[in-house]
Amino acid sequence: MLGINCIGILTSGGDAPGMNAAIRAVTRTALYNGFEVKGIYHGYRGLLNGEIETFRTENVSNIIQLGGTILKTARSKEFQTPEGRRQAFENMQREHIDALVVIGGDGSLAGAREFAAEFNFPIVGLPGTIDNDLSGTDTTIGYDTALNTIMEAVDKIRDTAMSHERLFFIEVMGRNAGFLALNGAIATGAEAAIIPEIATEVDQLAELIQNGFRKSKSSSIVLVAESEVTGGAMGLAERVKQEYPEYEVRVTILGHIQRGGSPTAADRILATRMGEAAVDAIIEGQRNVMVGIQDDKLIYVPFSKAIRDDKPINRDLIQTIKMLSI
Amino acid sequence: MLGINCIGILTSGGDAPGMNAAIRAVTRTALYNGFEVKGIYHGYRGLLNGEIETFRTENVSNIIQLGGTILKTARSKEFQTPEGRRQAFENMQREHIDALVVIGGDGSLAGAREFAAEFNFPIVGLPGTIDNDLSGTDTTIGYDTALNTIMEAVDKIRDTAMSHERLFFIEVMGRNAGFLALNGAIATGAEAAIIPEIATEVDQLAELIQNGFRKSKSSSIVLVAESEVTGGAMGLAERVKQEYPEYEVRVTILGHIQRGGSPTAADRILATRMGEAAVDAIIEGQRNVMVGIQDDKLIYVPFSKAIRDDKPINRDLIQTIKMLSI
Amino acid sequence: MLGINCIGILTSGGDAPGMNAAIRAVTRTALYNGFEVKGIYHGYRGLLNGEIETFRTENVSNIIQLGGTILKTARSKEFQTPEGRRQAFENMQREHIDALVVIGGDGSLAGAREFAAEFNFPIVGLPGTIDNDLSGTDTTIGYDTALNTIMEAVDKIRDTAMSHERLFFIEVMGRNAGFLALNGAIATGAEAAIIPEIATEVDQLAELIQNGFRKSKSSSIVLVAESEVTGGAMGLAERVKQEYPEYEVRVTILGHIQRGGSPTAADRILATRMGEAAVDAIIEGQRNVMVGIQDDKLIYVPFSKAIRDDKPINRDLIQTIKMLSI
Amino acid sequence: MLGINCIGILTSGGDAPGMNAAIRAVTRTALYNGFEVKGIYHGYRGLLNGEIETFRTENVSNIIQLGGTILKTARSKEFQTPEGRRQAFENMQREHIDALVVIGGDGSLAGAREFAAEFNFPIVGLPGTIDNDLSGTDTTIGYDTALNTIMEAVDKIRDTAMSHERLFFIEVMGRNAGFLALNGAIATGAEAAIIPEIATEVDQLAELIQNGFRKSKSSSIVLVAESEVTGGAMGLAERVKQEYPEYEVRVTILGHIQRGGSPTAADRILATRMGEAAVDAIIEGQRNVMVGIQDDKLIYVPFSKAIRDDKPINRDLIQTIKMLSI
Prior knowledge:
The structure is a homotetramer.
Chain A: E1 6-11, H1 19-32, E2 36-40, H2 43-49, E3 52-54, H3 82-94, E4 99-104, H4 106-119, E5 123-127, H5 143-164, E6 167-172, H6 179-188, E7 192-194, H7 202-214, E8 220-225, H8 232-243, E9 249-253, H9 265-283, E10 289-294, E11 297-302, H10 303-306, H11 316-324
Parallel strand pairs in A: 1-2, 1-4, 4-5, 5-10, 6-8, 6-9, 7-8
Antiparallel strand pairs in A: 2-3, 10-11
Helix pairs in contact in A: 1-9, 2-3, 5-6, 6-11
Domain Phosphofructokinase (chains A, B, C, D): 7-282
Main location (chains A, B, C, D): cytoplasm
Binding site for substrate (chains A, B, C, D): 129-131, 166, 173-175, 226, 250, 256-259
């Protein structure tokens, strides 16, 4: 097994539901296969500071259902410097960690890629991000839970929207990728989704809404991906209010509730299978790959491909939203 | 029974979970007792516009679990004028509505009080508001559900707060009354609650937070009642950041999700019992009272008392929060 | 403070949601007031076996939202013998535990009463049981959560009951007390509740159901308290099927899901306030009392009164169910 | 468009969450494309009895989030006879229904296949069943929701299992297919899954459980698919208790709660996409096919293939469960 005895594991970047299920799967699969396992707290920062602990099977008991990450996460500026990474690598050596499993989003995997290139040891990544914006994998750990959290929140808002017959702009996460907004709109029967992949003019939006009201729909809900370009839900609402002052417009920014919560079945199963595959990857001698899932099969994706910013959305769904909001 | 044959029912003001359970209880208790029942849509506005429909038992089938209000709600400027109220009363007469049940908050009950005074017919109010800010009743329809919605949202945020070790300000409803913020803080184990009833200095707050971090708590959460005085969560966060730039502060405004959702058991039971009591009140010849609950007994509270802005919070809970966040 | 330096805490009997919130409140209130705190695992059995650990504030961090009990619970036959209790008391002395807080149901408090009588030291009880069958307190820790769990399960079953137009008997806990069945029926709009406090003939039940079907209700749901007398939901369904073979009858026994789950806001707040009051009781020199709540005020109830099997249900609700299922 | 003007839609067999989302999507997509739409109540029985209603866009407003089926469902013995089907076809002609969309499980699609063969008109099926036991499609409408419902129930039971350190057998649906039990076990971190596809000896099971207890796991949970062969959870528990009386065994049968509840995001999106595809199929001249999804692409599956009883489970997951319960 290439002289690998001890696997280190860390979570990095924004936390995502299912990270704990992944930590559990990596830990137990590794232990089952005879490896030693070390948990590294606070992501790369903990690697720098030596916040490292030997993990036994009990360390991951009864965590599969917990949101967040028991390993904590942090952003580390120091790790972005060559000196920082050298320090981190030296700590790894001191702790006899031979391989690393990194659970996180694109920033975290970009860091992993650089780290691995400099010091030539195996890193395997797991896609842990609610945004689903990693390429080479159909879905990411945390995305399904976040989508359901959004759906439940919008269901609640629709109760009140329908009681008052109002227009709601609801902002969801996804600065670079519209998966949450687009699929959230389908799942909630929203009237429109404003996503970074597709430019939307206020006029188009207004027309759509007017059509809705003309058909005497009792409420209209628009899901908006957060964005510095459009100004998000708040920016959009401002422009609609300016041009169409007759609408009673309300804005809700879902914010940090989208990251938390007990993971869904799909996320727990995905995280479990991917965690197992990460250890398999190390056993097989893979390095510097992210575990992905495509057509329900686990695959290995080179980091360079995973962090490419070109994951396509399903554009047919835009038409679906339009048809179904008649 | 004082010549009352037909009872009208409407919901008014902000919607609250449990309103449908109350509509069901009023409708069926009235039908069971031989009354005719008419549902009035869009609150007082529907009374003005004649949006009125005869209700049978099927109209309220399978609604006990729904958030919002099937009767819709609206705010009506016209009803605030004497001419508007005259119009509304004439519509009631045309529809042969002899008595009215109004479900809503303080504004709605103030309107009911004026309406009843002018035209001398029985109105019974039900306290339907998530804010719990009506006097003469221990609790209001919708409050328990909103409190649980807040709790679940804060539980989710704590997942991510703990993973990142951050300070969160979370804004909840309750412009005039701190029930949601105060009890929400107890229920979530928050580090502090900022409520309108008690002035809080930024220094006090910072001290509290610093104590928390000194004790190496992994996260701090402060619940803040929305407020024009303090600027709510956003205003507070600004001031803390200015004076203590070393804190990583995040803000979430829960917003409209607090009004929606399927009502809790407590709210459904309360709404059911109060709805039944509203019809009893009419049978007993009560008029111009709100149904309240005190020490688990249903009582009648004069409108004038119900809308008094002096419902006391349980100040002991402030000390409880302080003790339990050590 | 009567020479009390160290407070022991244990949970006993069936677990109930909110026990962890109570453990947290007792621990931190005690620490805040300068006491030492010791957690005793597995109830009285752990007292016998010496499964005892010093508790610091971190031991109860982030547990307020968890179902079950971190202190575990067990039933101990040995503790029911004088020798067993002597052993337990000697362990307490060895650990310098001067006072005990016991969280549990009637069996646990009966044990506490006997233990305290024999060895003359302060025990304070907290009512922790989903059944709400302790006297002298309006409600118990865990009851509100269980009621909501039942409600959510019945809401789900009603989806399918309405789709198929069937008659469902759903069994809930409450062998000696019908609170869950009765209030669960109100909260779910069920057609009837079969509870131990009130004998129900199959004929009455059948009449009620026939009325429902005659009125072309799309489904009928009856909540049944578990019972050896009636045979519970299964026994009842058998008898109805025998006499009325034309009904399509289904049975669901909710079982152990009723004990678990994250506690509701009401249960967390109740457990927190009661936990604080337990420590206050010890400070005040109270002994051999259960903390209760009456009309929202915390009170002390002698054990002998708390375990009396005579807590009255609200019989008006039977009539409410009947009226509202028209 | 082959002379098709009016599309009928019905739900049949056991209800599944997401059926309403499918009804909404079929209805609105059909209306958007210029078809007339007729809703048929109570499945094939309603076709026989003429329980048919013209559907407009409002008929499917605000139903995407509802469990069950607004069209109701029923089993019809009469439809299983040639005379019954003739009657049904004549009613279709009288109502000018040219094509049928049937949402249901294998029995319903087998009926559709026979019906279409006899009268030569287009029927398109949608896979609506929580069991996921239809071939030619990766997943079925309702499966993801049922899986999450099971997971949430088991999470609750684990709270109490861990508090008491017990062995639980939990029975889930899936008489012919172990998807729910197997994936439910992965999602909840259960110690084993007993499924129809794989014979399990009591000895194996006992060994597994003993290993668990030897490793001092605090509880053991086994998910069991309902089965007449093994006797389900109850039968299994009996045999374990007989041979290993030292275990404290508990049984819970989840039952009908598994069918209900608001559908998850995945089920709503799946149902929406499939509903749209059903209308596309009719437009394209497809007939006697079920809409399936494979590798996230919508496909058409001949009825004969869809109802074949040979859908493979992912056997790797058995090993995963074993590894992760160390």
